[in-house]
């Protein structure tokens, strides 16, 4: 059995009416391996998805005042009424504001065996109030080259296993080419061109609880935390490539309300 692990702190399931799967992963996670504490307010787009608004299970990112981006495996079979999005804080146990969820849209071709098309959009019931500590991240629609510097943030584990931290962590990574990533994982799991990989060295990387969180280049989100070898074993971590899903994101947002997509377009035009 391959040791491929999706980096979720809680794997939700509604089989036989249960909220959690039999894979009891709930409290066995801590934070990004090898990272440092993120400064308060430095990652205003960071979201903590929490069961009942209390128990963190995945990261996510704000992309418009009413839209959040995350991984499909984070919300797979999870009904909107069972979780909330908390924004505006770097601490899991203090601060922030909770928003209830109106609707979740997973990519229709998400495959939990291959872990591909691992992307989903969460629509909040109410508009998120922006401030100095709450804001949307711009989406990247340009190629990422080898060794470009990327920033990962999340509340994932520092060891395998561990416990959830209170503080949001960050880690600087470098982009890995598709060919190098595919070679690194050839005996483990398929890597697709719709994914992006990142690595620094053994002892640094994503871990459980980081799933769905943002990988960012110069203020623009390039990836969504998807899967890897637990944890920080020197293999590249694999992220859903935002650039590859811009068409899907556009369609999903417009199908709900064209204003969502117009907001993203305005942000991009203002940058230029």
UniProtKB/TrEMBL annotation:
Top-level taxon of the source organism: Eukaryota
Reaction equation(s) it catalyzes: Preferential cleavage: Arg-|-Xaa, Lys-|-Xaa
Location relative to the cell: Secreted
Enzyme class: hydrolase
Signal peptide: 1-17
GO MF term set: serine-type endopeptidase activity
One Pfam short name: Trypsin
GO biological process, one term: protein processing
Gene3D superfamilies the record matches: Trypsin-like serine proteases (2.40.10.10)
SUPFAM superfamilies in UniProt: Trypsin-like serine proteases (SSF50494)
Classification via InterPro entries: Peptidase_S1 (IPR050430), Peptidase_S1_PA (IPR009003), Peptidase_S1_PA_chymotrypsin (IPR043504), Peptidase_S1A (IPR001314), Trypsin_dom (IPR001254), TRYPSIN_HIS (IPR018114), TRYPSIN_SER (IPR033116)
Record flagged with keyword Repeat: no
Keywords, alphabetical: Disulfide bond, Hydrolase, Protease, Secreted, Serine protease, Signal
EC numbers for this chain: 3.4.21.4
Domain Peptidase S1 residue range list: 32-254
GO cellular component, one term: extracellular region
Protein family per UniProt: Belongs to the peptidase S1 family.
Protein name: trypsin
Lineage: Eukaryota, Metazoa, Ecdysozoa, Arthropoda, Hexapoda
């Amino acid at each position: 059995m391959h040791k491929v692990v999706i980096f979720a702190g809680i794997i939700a399931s509604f089989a036989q009416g249960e909220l959690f799967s039999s894979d009891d992963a709930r409290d066995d996670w801590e934070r990004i391996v090898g990272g440092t504490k993120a400064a308060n307010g430095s990652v205003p787009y960071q979201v903590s998805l929490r069961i009942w608004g209390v128990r963190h299970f995945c990261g996510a990112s704000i992309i418009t005042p009413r839209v959040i981006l995350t991984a499909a495996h984070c919300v797979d079979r999870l009904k909107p009424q069972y979780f909330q999005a908390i924004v505006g804080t770097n601490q899991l146990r203090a601060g922030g504001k909770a928003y209830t969820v109106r609707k979740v849209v997973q990519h229709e071709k998400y495959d939990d065996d291959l872990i591909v098309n691992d992307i989903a959009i969460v629509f909040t019931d109410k508009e998120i109030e922006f401030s100095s500590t709450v804001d949307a991240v711009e989406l990247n629609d340009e190629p990422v080259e080898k060794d470009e510097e990327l920033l990962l943030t999340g509340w994932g584990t520092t060891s395998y296993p561990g416990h959830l931290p209170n503080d949001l962590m960050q880690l600087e990574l470098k982009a890995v080419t598709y060919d190098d990533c595919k070679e690194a994982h050839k005996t483990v799991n398929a890597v697709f061109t719709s994914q992006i990989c990142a690595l620094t060295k053994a002892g640094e990387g994503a871990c459980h609880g980081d799933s769905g969180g943002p990988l960012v280049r110069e203020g623009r989100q390039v990836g969504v935390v998807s899967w890897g070898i637990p944890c920080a074993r020197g293999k590249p971590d694999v992220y859903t490539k935002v650039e590859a899903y811009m068409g899907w994101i556009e369609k999903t947002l417009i199908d709900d309300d064209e204003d969502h997509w117009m907001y993203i377009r305005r942000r991009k035009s203002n940058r230029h």
